[in-house]
Amino acid sequence: MPLPAVALDHVELVRVAMPLVRPFRTSFGTQTARDVLLVHVRDADGTDGWGECATTAAPVYDADFTDGAALVLADHLVPAVLAAGTARGVDDVRARLAGYRGHHAARAALEAAVWDLQLRAAGRSLADHLGVARDRVPAGVSVGIPTDPDGAADVDALVAQVGGYLEESYLRVKVKIEPGFDLAAVRGLRAAFGSDLRLQVDANTAYSPDDPAHIAVLDELDSTGLEMIEQPFGADRLRSHAEHAARWRTPVCLDESITDRSRATDAVDDGACAIVNIKIGRVGGLTEAIAVHDRCRARSVPVWCGGMLETGIGRGVNVALAGLPGFTLPGDTSASSRYFAEDLTEPFLLEDGHVAIPRTAGASPPPDPGRLAAWTTDRTSLR
Ligand code: OSB
Ligand code: MG
Prior knowledge:
By secondary structure, this protein is α/β, with parallel strands linked by helices. The chain has helices spanning 66-82, 90-97, 104-122, 126-130, 155-168, 183-193, 212-221, 238-245, 261-269, 280-283, 286-298, 312-321, 369-375; strands spanning 8-26, 29-43, 48-53, 136-138, 140-143, 172-176, 199-202, 229-230, 252-254, 275-278, 303-305, 350-351, 354-356, 376-381.
């Protein structure tokens, strides 16, 4: 059933300070908090919609960053959507943004807010709208590189953290690696938890295909029983990924490289990856994310839902998307408690290794008004 038309009346950017329960260190840097950018839309009837911008504070994961997203939304994307008569929904918004290049996380946040508004107006959940049959999704956890008091990467601390997550019932573990924190980390986890642990690694582009020492380490990692290796090389290096994927038994999964549906099919068809990490922000919106899923599914390529340390606003959309049938691997769709002492929405809970798919009206549960007000650092109206 198509979504009802709305009359997009008011757009606001809201910034919210959300400290993380523990620092998240990757090969590109350490995050201790999220300065969350939310897009809030309202229609002429006063129905609200919310979307979360999946960016890091600095352009270190990809070229997007939170202040840049806020600027491009305020100066370009939102004015384009509000000009030329009232926008009636997601399709209108996408058409009005079609002439703008890049800034995928910003446009995805705006699109998500409009999905949320239309679904709320329809009284329908995103999962129902997408025809999702499951009622829960399997959850993995993405574990940062732990640091000891001197700032050195710490395998014992990693083993302790992973032990805690396994006790909580997470079904698979993804650990962040970088040159110098890779083989020892994986061997430490294998020694502690055995070969049955569903373990994968994420390099966030930290290895160079041109450095023989890096390749030697990756070749050794290839015999540690990993479920996959995620994004060892730079986002543009599809050929290098294909060359090594052909030699390794460990499947290669791509994250940073997958910027839209055609890049996804190029990567898969050229052998650069056998698994795709889908992130709504990175591919430029929920519509595009569904298209990536559909193309991968047509090729029997498994996908899973990545994360960007989202609050419940972004998490709700991720969890509903992850209910689609091609999502056959546990995602980084962890419980709220993995990230925040208190979430902006009703918390997402882990039960028996799974997170329930929301079935309330909207793309995600709404923010709690009290917590939102208490943690908001800035609001800009763009009517
Ligand atoms: O590479 O998947 C990544 C967080 C920020 C930027 C990039 C990545 C990540 C994560 C966190 O791994 C996943 C999560 O939200 O739990
Ligand atoms: Mg990744």
